[in-house]
Structures
1.
Amino acid sequence: MKRSTRSAAAGSELLLLGAMLLAWCPAVTLAETIEVASSILTVSETVKVPAPEAGVLRELVVHEGMRLEQGATIGEVDAREQQLSAEVIEQDLAIARSESESDVRVRLAAKENKVAEAELKRATSINAELPNTVSTKEVERLRLTMEKSELEIEFANFERDLLAAKLGRIEADLRLAQHQVEKMRVTSPIGGVVAELFCEAGEWVDAGEPIARLVRVDQLRVEGFVGIDDALAGLVNRPVVVEALLPSGETIKAEGRVVFVSPEAEPVDAKVRFWAEVDNSAMRLRPGLTARVMILDAAAGDAPVQPAAYFAN
């Protein structure tokens, strides 16, 4: 009887323990979400656009605060010298193309060969009927003339092939010259906002001297610190939800993903720096704002993120 009572009690304890474990499982999932109370939003990409070559900045078509697409024109360094060089090469190309397409020299050499062959045949025919009418020296001269005309045909064909090769080289020179002209146009390497201009139209610029500074704002970076234990949990590529408080008091939420976790910990507090890229296509967030970050469980990346669900007060 005592054994039965003990068995029943043990069974009840196991059932209670199982219920407690089931109730505790959701808490484990929530514990995998890491909250970073204070982080800062920064630009994800900033570029100083240099002058391609030394020269006068002929035009500058942007102003500070202007939004640019990738490849948009910022300005142009004076390219008139390069343009003239390209025009000269274009003329050389037209001449070379005309010469390579002409077969006049080949046809002329062929005609001369026919004449020389006919004269030699006539001389040998006369000597066949009337021996020694045409001297041996004259026959040899006519034979030499005919052989020379055959070589002139070969040389004319060789010259034509050479002109075709020369044509290809001039075409390459023209492409290079056109590239030099295009190179003088200053373009935006990224899509972003003109944050700063370093010179004005009409000024001399040296090769490599910065003309403008662009920042990308449609995607921001949120930087913060996590504990070393959290950093070891494999944060890279985990989804994040960011909450930023605007000066007006309005709260903006955005989504992103962790892209970097520092391999080093701070010696004072053992915190590890990380950053995540945050979508700002709505252009409501600004670099410099402080933000609260929730680093979600990696499994949350497979389901749509609901930002409001992670910041319920």
2.
Amino acid sequence: GANLRGANLPDLTFVILGEKYFISITNGEYVRAGCQNHTVEEWRKYSKQEIAEMDGRKALKFYPRLLDIIDFYIGKGERPDWLTSKEYADEVTE
């Protein structure tokens, strides 16, 4: 990994290691998870289909964790209703 000691990074910029995907948060506005880079607002509103198209079942299983990470670093925010559906729960526990 890169040595960021002494780097002049904007406020609310984080690099998170040890997750299923490389995650970075830039200026508290953009979140990169793996090769996907979107605004915090976009991440919070994606449909189940949009998340699945990013990386299939692996992305669907990781999405709630990503939102937890965003909530921790940026502040609690909204989540799509489909995350609490029985259909989603059944799909990611199969």
